[in-house]
Specification:
Length: 312
């Protein structure tokens, strides 16, 4: 059996930074530490943080006076931020810079008199925060079926479009093409983050060379779901959270298995998954070739297991 690991799989810079900040707080702060919402969309990382003593709150008032509150990587809206600032808390902002850029950009388009279209899931925390920043003055579109005529009547002089950072590039292109048919003057700003686009592109390349792709990440991770969508265009996909979800029945002799992982999936989970796949491959074929898996399988990975895969 052959296993091909995607070139870019697992933690992006935004997730790494958020986790580094959280680990630093957990180890240095004498006060209790909380995250506002899940720090990142991955259950194994959340459990890891709980083991460090970091709990999650969903309302500003849940944080006891004097405690430290880490803002999640997907950001929060201005109302929640105001409520936090009104209290005696130390706030550590782990909002990803790419997410912040979209918030600021959406706000500036509205301030400059644009009608705004946001491509993304209306209830995803990132989009909820953007909506709050612009007082819900945007048309949020999450599927091609929602692009019906007319989106605006009359069509405003200036219409801008931004996207969720973890959107599928394929959906982005299709949606823009469809919207442009009724709004030719649409000003398109692709705000999908580089990490998302690269991971989708690398996942596609792996899928093209494989008989099946295993995508690792939590079910509520948006970017992980997008990776699965990209791969399923080419081959069957198995979406798993940990090695425990793997079934031997998925594998056949001499097959090529692709492996990729969402931007919030830790290296220690990827490593465990690879180990299980390799042992199944060895059982079926007597040997298993792994392409591009060294960084997960070598001993250096040990140090990252200890600190949650973060660079701290
Ligand atoms: Fe940021 Fe993109 Fe990662 S928005 S958290 S770098 S997936």
């Amino acid at each position: 059996m052959r296993v091909i690991v995607a070139d870019k799989a697992g933690f992006c810079q935004g997730v790494k930074r958020a986790l580094d900040l959280a680990i630093k707080e957990a180890t240095q702060s004498p006060e209790p530490v909380y995250t506002f919402g899940p720090l990142v969309h991955n259950n194994q990382v959340i459990t890891y943080l709980e083991d460090l003593g970091i709990e999650r709150i969903d309302e500003a008032l849940q944080a006891p006076p004097g405690s430290h509150v880490i803002i999640r990587s997907h950001g929060i809206g201005p109302l929640d931020m105001e409520k936090l600032e009104e209290q005696e808390l130390t706030i550590i902002d782990a909002t990803c810079v790419k997410v912040k850029q979209v918030q600021d950009f959406a706000k500036s388009l509205i301030e400059r008199g644009y009608a705004l279209i946001v491509l993304g899931a209306p209830e995803h925390p990132e989009i909820k925060a953007i909506r709050e920043y612009i007082n819900d003055r945007a048309l949020v579109i999450h599927s091609l079926d929602e692009i019906i005529e007319p989106l605006f009547n009359p069509i405003p002089e200036k219409v801008g479009l931004v996207s969720q950072t973890t959107l599928s590039k394929i959906f982005f292109d299709q949606a823009v093409e469809k919207i442009r048919k009724q709004i030719p003057n649409l000003e398109v700003h692709n705000t999908i983050c580089g990490a998302t686009e690269t991971r989708q592109e690398e996942a596609r390349k792996v899928a093209e060379r494989s008989d099946m792709v295993i995508v690792i990440g939590s079910p509520f991770s948006s970017n992980t779901s997008r990776l699965a969508e990209v791969c399923v265009e080419h081959v069957p996909v198995k979406k798993i959270e940990t090695e425990e979800d793997i079934s031997e029945e998925w594998f056949t002799k001499n097959m090529t298995v692709g492996v990729t992982a969402g931007a919030s999936t830790p290296e220690w989970v990827i490593k465990q998954v690879l180990k299980v796949i390799i042992s199944i491959g060895e059982m079926l074929d007597g040997e298993c070739e792994v392409i591009n898996g060294d960084m997960y399988l070598t001993k250096d990975n040990k140090s990252q297991e200890k600190n949650g895969g973060s660079s701290v």
